[in-house]
Design a protein that fits this description.
Distance between the termini: 36 Å
Strand content: 15-25%
Helix content: 40-55%
Number of strands: 5
Number of helices: 4
Length: 119
């Protein structure tokens, strides 16, 4: 199944361990066929932005997803759960998804938790 993404001028998309940047002055549409992992730049948490345990956890899961290498995220999950019980059911669900190899679904769960904590 193809993934169709509409992008603004200058917007970036992470595809695996590569970055695609729209170089035109107009909106562009790209279609991605294949199984490489994809994250839009506005959804990506950079390492320097990972200033809280939840942001660090989300960054680690994103890197595990994008780079297709085994990142040790279980210790980060445990550190987060040891610091707070807020949203522990969602965090446990994300941990389960990671262990099942459902990394994109785990990232979506963590994004929802980030939205809740931002309130």
């Amino acid at each position: 199944m193809s993934l169709k993404i509409d992008l603004r001028s200058g917007e970036k998309v992470y595809v695996g361990n590569s970055i695609l940047t729209v170089a035109s002055d107009e909106r562009s549409t790209i279609i991605i066929d294949g199984t490489l992992p994809v994250i839009r730049e506005n959804d990506f948490i950079h390492q320097e932005q990972a200033t809280t345990p939840l942001l660090s956890l989300t960054h680690a899961v994103q890197m595990h997803y994008l780079v297709l290498e085994q990142y040790s995220v279980s210790s980060i999950f445990h550190v987060y759960l040891s610091t707070t019980w807020e949203n522990s059911a969602s965090i446990s669900n994300a941990m389960k998804l990671v262990s099942q190899g459902e990394l994109y679904k785990a990232i979506r769960v963590l994004k929802d938790v980030l939205k809740i904590e931002a309130r």
